[in-house]
Fold this protein.
Amino acid sequence: MTSRDKEMETGRNIHRKRSRELQWSNEASQELLKLRYKTLRALFDEAETVADVHEAWGVVASRLNAMENLEMEELDPVKCSDQLTKLRLLWQDSNTQLQVMMAECFGQQAMETMQEASPKRRKPTEPFLVSPTESQVEDSASTAELEAPLSPEPESNSAAEPEGQVEMSNLQAVQQEPVRAEAQADEEEFSRQDAIMRELEKRSEQLERLAESHQHLAEVTQKLMEALVNQQHFVEEHVSTSSKVKSSQQRSIRSKVLEQYPDLEPYAEMLMPKKAPMVVAKCHNHIQIVLHEGEPVFFNQRDGPFMPTLKLLHKVPHVMKQVRADKGAIPFVLSGANVMCPGLTSAGGDMPESLEAGTPVAIMAEGKEHAMAIGILTLSTDDIRSKNKGVAIEMVHFLGDDLWTCAHID
């Protein structure tokens, strides 16, 4: 197995540059990255059977479980494999039954064999069912006249009438027998066709489920590729350096963060351990990002206040002051726009505390549980209520921006 195959199986080191790639330009590295994503997508495009889809799912699931920025429940490839395997077995059983029933109903050879073997479809050849001819009727009548004893004429007529009725009833029974056989055969054929239609509907539902499963895998793969592209774009375009800071600077950052967010004290040793070195990534526009094992946890601009990232805030939502915007402001906030005063003072908005201008706040959405953005108050909450116009919060970080899509910085 080649290193490329191992990389596709484990889903790791997709961004690692080989020795020959270190001298390449950013454009060349980006093209190489796109080729790797195409290889991942090809796993689903080239899948022809359920087993192929299962193999592709194993690769995607391992990568999705390593990506925290997708905020999805953990995907179990084994569970998905079992579901796909059961679906495949049902599909195969349905296909086998369908082929047998189609052969019974529409196969010409099977129909001819059935007609030859069916006694109800053949013309009756037994002697007692053959209809008598006119000459046989005349001969039997003349013989009866010669052999019959002399008797009054009314008695002979009364004896001949029952024989004619028996012959007519036999003739009618012979004529009705093929009609009954054909009607019964038609009923059997219709019942087989109904069973085939039910099997076709059942198989159609199974195919729809397979198509939905394949579509779901394709959508998840697309999200994964977009997240990886955005992460690589953020690191290449925004991060200039990433290095360990001095112990004095580390103590300063730690004290500032705990001073601004006292409720973070129980988590301080986990997020910013004293004995472990602190790594800070410096970006354009004088932005610095504090990293914990490569994951962004805090950031600030110039000498401004430190603020937690939204991913960290979703884990410990109570550490930051909160305001709530109404439903009408949600699409504007998610596009990166500043929050206006009416969005906080309307019926759906809320500002429960008296906060001063310059305070970092978590921007909640009406009817939602987690914060959708982080910003800095440009006015105090009292001024926002009294003026009720203009910009109330300056946006600094929101769901879907570059910092949100960046899950790891080396």
Notes: The longest strand covers residues 391-398.
